Amino acid sequence: MSKLSIIIPSRNETFLPQTVNDLLTKAEGDIEVIVILDGYWHNPQLQEDKRLHIIHRGKPLGLRNAINSAAEIAKGKYILKCDAHCLFGEGYDEILKADCELNWISIPRRYSLDAINWCRKEKHPIDYLYLECPSISKHGDLAGMVWNERNYDVELEKVLIDDLLTFQGSCWFMHKDYFFELEKLDEENYGSFRKEPQELSFKCWLSGGRVIRNKKTWYAHLHKGKQFGRGYSLHNTDWKKGDEYNKKWLTNSAWSGQTKDFKWLMDKFLPMPGWENYEW
Question: Number of structural domains, the chain?
Answer without folding.
Answer: 1
